[in-house]
Specification:
Layout lengths: L2 H20 L10 E9 L2 E9 L3 H4 L9 H6 L1 H11 E5 L2 E2 L1 E12 L2 E11 L5 E5 L10 E6 L2 E5 L5 E4 L5 H18 L1 H17 L5 H27 L7 H21 L5 H23 L6 H30 L5 H26 L10
Parallel strand pairs: 1-8
Antiparallel strand pairs: 1-2, 2-6, 3-4, 3-7, 5-6, 7-10, 8-9
Helix pairs in contact: 5-10, 6-7, 6-8, 6-10, 6-11, 7-9, 7-10, 8-9, 8-11
């Protein structure tokens, strides 16, 4: 290398070293970074945005460079509005309505921070989320997000993302109606309890006109509905609970009691019996909801939809079973040939279930295990 080339190389190295030593401190740090969590929910998105205190000094016009938690909370309304202005969403059908649901102080990277939760209610279709938070203050700003568990970085050159179309509220509620109906029809114990009630109602109303008999069975089923609705709602909201072994054992015993009453005497006072045992069956229904989970935005609606599905399944069973049983109950052979054998069989199977559930034994699947 010539002497001139060496001189040029030394001068260039000295210049780079000088620039490195005198560069503004901010240029030596990582890009100013916020964080967010995006979740698709019925009817839209929930977006949680977290920003550290030192990044909020200019944004919120705070007096100190490292504001305290108290200072941040005092400026939370301003923070909410700024984030609402910077984070927007729309679908092909139009913009999403947004509101700040909650703002609180948190710890982020070992310093105070503000966290705001935005709720977007969107028209149907895939949602495009746009995030320009702090871009106007510092073009190097970025927001690292988890979008339904998948990481994504919003920055100046990539400020929007299209996420999957969230389910509509109607779709969610319809799903819970189907789930409630399916749980009744797939649960042998609930079906056999309804069958036992309808058998007894048909025998009780054998001498009545069909309309009066239908009113009687409707009253019995209404008692059951009221009972299980109370405990379904209470258990799903966390107000009451019982160990599942106790609940399942008593559900089996409820079939034993009703079947025995059908076999040995004419059923009376069935409204109270159905309502009382309905309380326990409601806890069984609630166990399904505890596994599925209630969506936060439509929590009450989903709970009522599930209960509505239960009622539709029960009504379908009653409409299917009662007319032919009511007709058969007028025949002299009904009690001897149908009511007694059916009730004894139902009671025996349910007694076996109660014994096995209470003692924790296992049964073959074809016996309800």
């Amino acid at each position: 290398m010539t002497r001139g080339a060496w001189a040029f190389a030394r001068a260039a190295a000295l210049l780079l070293l000088t620039l490195g030593l005198w560069a503004p401190p901010a240029l030596a740090h990582d890009a100013p970074r916020s964080f967010c969590h995006v979740k698709t929910v019925p009817g839209g998105l929930d977006v949680r945005v977290e920003t550290a205190a030192h990044l909020l000094t200019r944004s919120l016009a705070l007096a100190t460079e490292w504001p305290s938690e108290a200072e941040l909370l005092a400026a939370r309304e301003r923070y909410e509005q700024l984030v609402l202005d910077a984070v927007t969403a729309h679908t092909p059908a139009g913009p999403c309505a947004a509101e700040a649901a909650a703002t609180r102080a948190v710890r982020l990277l070992d310093e105070p921070a503000l966290e705001v939760t935005l709720r977007f209610d969107c028209p149907a279709g895939p949602v495009t989320l746009r995030n320009t938070w702090r871009f106007e203050l510092d073009p190097r700003s970025e927001t690292l997000c988890s979008v339904d568990g998948t990481p994504f970085r919003f920055w100046l050159r990539e400020s929007q993302l299209t996420v999957a179309a969230p389910p509509t509220r109607a779709q969610v509620l319809l799903g819970f109606v189907r789930s409630g109906a399916a749980h009744v029809l797939a649960g042998a114990d609930h079906v056999l309890f309804i069958v036992s009630l309808v058998l007894g109602a048909a025998w009780r109303a054998r001498a009545w006109p069909l309309r009066r008999g239908l009113g009687h069975v409707a009253g019995v089923i209404t008692g059951f509905t009221l009972g299980h609705s109370v405990t379904l709602i209470a258990a799903s909201l966390g107000w009451v609970s019982l160990p599942s072994r106790v609940t399942e054992t008593v559900i089996a015993l409820s079939i034993v009691v009703v079947a025995a009453e059908n076999a040995w005497r004419e059923p009376r006072g069935r409204l109270l019996t159905a309502a009382g045992f309905g309380l326990v069956h409601g806890l069984g229904f609630a166990s399904v909801l505890s596994e599925v989970g209630l969506p936060e935005r439509v929590r009450l609606g989903a709970l009522l939809a599930f209960n509505g599905g239960v009622e539709l399944a029960q009504l379908g069973l009653v409409l299917l079973l009662y007319p032919p049983l009511a007709h058969a109950a007028r025949r002299p052979w009904f009690r001897r040939a149908l009511l007694l054998p059916s009730s004894l069989s139902l009671g025996a199977v349910a007694a076996l279930w109660a014994l096995v559930r209470g003692l924790g034994w296992a049964l073959p699947s074809w016996l309800g295990g």
